[in-house]
Amino acid sequence: MKKLFILFLAVLFLAACGSDEEDTEAVTEKEPEQEIEEEVEKETEEEVEEEVEEETQEEEKTTEETTKEAATEEESEEPVEEETSWDDVKNMNNIVGNSNKDFTELTDSSPSEVRNDNTGNWRYITISENVDMEEYALSYEELHMNEDEVHFIINFNYNTTTMLNNLDGLLYLDVYEYEDGEEHDASTLASGVFLKSYAVYPDGDIEEVE
C-alpha cells in the first residue's frame, strides 16, 4: 500500500512537470507572435504620424500660398499714385524770371505788426529801392514769414504795396498801387488799385498770373 502511494505521488509529480514544460513552451511560442503584433502596431503608428505630418505640411503650404496670392491681388488692386511736381502745374509761357536775390541786400529791418489787425497774422515792412519785389520774394519768405502769416512790402520808390501769401506751398504775390498812409491801419492796407499778380515756385520760377 505504501508503495502504491509513492508511485501515485511520482505520477502526479511527472504530470505537473509536464504541464509546466507545456506552459513554458506555450509562452515561448506566443512571444514571437506578440513581438510581431507590437512591430505591426509600431509601424502603423509611425505611418499614421507620417501621414498626419504630411497633411499638416500640405495645409501650411496651401495656407501660405493662399496668403501670398491674396497679398498679390491686394497689391495689384491698389491704385498707383502718380507723383506730381511743380513743373506739371507751371504755365511755362508765363515764366518771367527767377526769385533768387537776397532780401538782406535791401534792408536789415524786420516786419512790424499791422494796427487793428483782427487776425494777428498781418505784417508789413517798408523799403525805398529800385527793385522788383518778386525777385526777392523767396528770400523774404525764408527770413521773415511764419505759417499762416500775410506780409506786405511797401516800396516807396515804386509807390507799390506787394502782398505775400503762401498757399499750399506756393508763394503768391499781389501788387497794388500804394495809397498814402495805408500802412498805419489794417482797413487801408493794400487798398490801392490792383496792378498784377505772380506765383513764385519753390525752385524760384516766377509765373505771371493773368
SSE order and pairing:
Layout: H1 2-77, E1 95-98, E2 112-113, E3 122-127, H2 137-144, E4 150-155, E5 160-167, E6 170-177, E7 194-200, E8 205-209
Parallel strand pairs: 3-4
Antiparallel strand pairs: 1-8, 2-3, 4-5, 5-6, 6-7, 7-8
Runs with pLDDT <50, length 5+? none
Termini Cα gap: 152 Å
| Largest sheet, spatial ordering of strands | 1-8-7-6-5-4-3-2
Q: What does the average pLDDT come to?
A: 82
Q: How many beta-strand elements?
A: 8
SSE order, one letter for each helix or strand: HEEEHEEEEE
Spatial extent as radius of gyration: 51 Å
Strand content: 15-25%
* Domain count: 2
Structure class:
alpha+beta
The amount of helix comes to 40-55%
User: What kind of sheet is the major sheet?
Assistant: 8 strands, mixed
The 3D shape can be described as rod-shaped
Specify the number of helices.
2
